[in-house]
UniProtKB/TrEMBL annotation:
Residues 178-315 form the GGDEF domain. GO terms for molecular function: diguanylate cyclase activity. Keywords: Nucleotidyltransferase, Transferase. It comes from Massilia soli. It is an enzyme of class 2 (transferase). PROSITE patterns: GGDEF, PAS. Its EC number is 2.7.7.65. It catalyses: 2 GTP = 3',3'-c-di-GMP + 2 diphosphate. NCBIfam families: GGDEF. This is diguanylate cyclase. Residues 3-73 form the PAS domain.
Length: 316
């Protein structure tokens, strides 16, 4: 095989688009890959002006890159992230109908040949697969992040999320001096509920209560988390005892209003919650453990006092 025939054969077999333009920007080489994905055979484009073949490219980045390659001897690489699918190239006729272009990475290179004015080589690679994989990986990473910060059963924040948010809020409150209230909320007589209705219905009720409580929070930094089995914790930044008390009382009443029938052996006809509350202020400057410990003690006081109630314990 002669050398030109060999080169012709290799060019035809290449798995990327190859275009060569002469100094006047006329197409002088167009390989089979380009014909296959553009729908234009070499005989239709050879000898034509590049911008006549690709009218939509006028004034675009690729037009500038060709200009710089031909007249300033500058090469350029157009990554698909910044220049999405510049050429109208498609994987097949169906994709063309849908207008779904191949994702492309484009390299524009000056070609200096002895005795000729400068030409320019344009290489187009199909990076659709890489782009698809990258998108998939990004989505998976986001999913994992969400999963690692939310509780699978109820969909609210999990304990890890609570710990991180609590650290942040304590730090923020130390800087700003604003108050920070914490509620610990526990479903009353949940063991008899599970024993009577079964664990699966117990799960459903847990999720329903979590959802109802979460629906009461409207400020962006308020956070409700599943703290333990049937216990929730609510972080309320920037509100002092009075406002937090009103919200906590409304949350208690909201669960009662759900009117979820309780087990016959419970003291209550409906599912209820007990709530313990404590507030960090600039004056008491409580650390995380003290705030949580105090809200926890208040919760147990609410249980001892008969349940379905709110108890506030002050930090001295
Ligand atoms: N269905 C279900 N039950 C859970 C889950 N996590 C914890 N529990 C149950 O919650 C119940 C908690 O019971 P206890 O701590 O004894 O207290 P209680 O019966 O709720 O009574 P008081 O808290 O004193 O009002 C236990 O029976 C746990 O099995 C869960 O994810 N799903």
């Amino acid at each position: 095989m002669t050398r030109p025939a060999l080169l012709e054969c290799a060019l035809g077999a290449m798995n990327l688009g190859v275009i060569v333009l002469d100094h006047a920007r006329k197409v002088v080489l167009w390989n089979r890959w380009m014909a296959q994905h553009s729908g234009q055979h070499a005989s239709e484009v050879l000898g034509r002006d590049f911008l006549d073949v690709f009218d939509g490219m006028r004034g675009r980045r690729i037009d500038g890159a060709v200009h710089h390659a031909l007249y300033d001897n500058f090469p350029a690489i157009l990554s698909q992230t910044l220049h999405k699918a510049p050429f109208p190239l498609y994987v097949d006729a169906e994709a063309r109908q849908r207008g779904e272009r191949l994702q492309q990475a484009v390299a524009v290179t000056p070609l200096d040949m002895p005795g000729e004015r400068r030409h320019c080589l344009i290489q187009v690679s199909d990076v659709s697969y890489a782009v698809h994989r990258e998108r998939l990986l990004r989505e998976q990473a986001l999913d994992l992040r969400l999963q690692s910060y939310s509780d699978g059963l109820t969909g609210i924040a999990n304990r890890r999320h609570f710990d991180a948010a609590m650290d942040n809020e304590i730090r923020r409150t130390k800087r700003s001096g604003s108050p920070l209230s914490l509620l610990m909320i526990d479903i009353d007589f949940f063991k008899p509920y599970n024993d009577y209705f079964g664990h699966q219905q117990g799960d459903e009720t847990l999720a329903r209560v979590a959802h109802a409580l979460a629906g009461m929070l409207h400020r962006p930094l308020d956070l409700i988390a599943r703290y333990g089995g049937e216990e929730f914790a609510v972080i309320l930044p920037d509100i002092g005892e009075d406002q937090a008390r009103q919200l906590a009382e409304a949350m208690r009443a909201r669960v009662e209003q759900l009117a979820i029938p309780h087990a016959p052996s419970s003291d209550f006809a409906q599912v209820t919650v007990s709530i313990g509350m404590a507030t960090r202020t600039a004056r008491n400057s409580a650390e995380t453990a003290v705030l949580i410990g105090t809200a926890d003690r208040a919760l147990y006081a609410a249980k001892r006092a008969g349940r379905n109630r709110l108890v506030i314990e002050r930090i001295e």
